[in-house]
Design goal:
Layout lengths: L47 H22 L8 E12 L2 E10 L8 E7 L6 E7 L9 E9 L10 E5 L1
Antiparallel strand pairs: 1-2, 2-5, 3-4, 3-6
Length: 163
């Protein structure tokens, strides 16, 4: 006799429960362990000494800048003018310079003399330091020789000086 004939129901075969991983494994693979040599060192907090060093460098830069802007600490500031110039050979000018110490104490200036023609085709400059200090409030005259490019001393029309 057939099972349907007796009022019994036909039951579908039971499926096994799903396996979360392939049957060959029972757990997920563990992440690879870092060897101790590859671990990063612990971070340090910035030290007070490092901050002090940075502050000291900044302050030193400020002090140097102030000294340079106030005449190099020599006590002098200078006003310079060109008294005149003459051609001494095709390549050289002789330039007379008046330098006045407008500072409060004697100091030795370093001056730069520049010369050129109107087109700047012929140019020259010279920087020099006087051999002795200029007393406060005094004016001295010195002569500087400036070599001009292309033997163009005869074409120079502009001569300037700064100290």
């Amino acid at each position: 006799m057939h099972p349907y004939d007796q009022g019994q129901r036909y039951a579908a075969p039971q499926r096994p429960a799903p396996v979360p991983y392939p049957p060959s494994r029972t757990a997920p693979p563990a992440p690879p362990a870092r060897p101790p040599a590859q671990q990063s060192p612990p971070r340090r907090k910035p030290s007070a000494a490092r901050g002090f060093i940075i502050l000291a460098v900044i302050l030193a830069a400020i002090v140097i800048a102030v000294i340079e802007l106030t005449g190099g600490g020599s006590g002098g500031s200078f006003k310079a003018t060109v008294a005149g110039y003459t051609v001494i050979n095709p390549a050289d000018l002789s330039v007379a310079v008046h330098v006045t110490n407008t500072g409060s104490s004697a100091a030795t200036p370093t001056c730069t003399v520049k010369a050129n023609d109107p087109s700047y085709a012929y140019t020259g400059f010279d920087e020099g330091t006087l051999t002795s200090p200029v007393p406060a409030g005094q004016t001295v005259t010195y002569v500087d020789n400036v070599t001009i490019t292309g033997q163009g001393a005869q074409y120079v029309t502009q001569v300037t000086v700064s100290c």
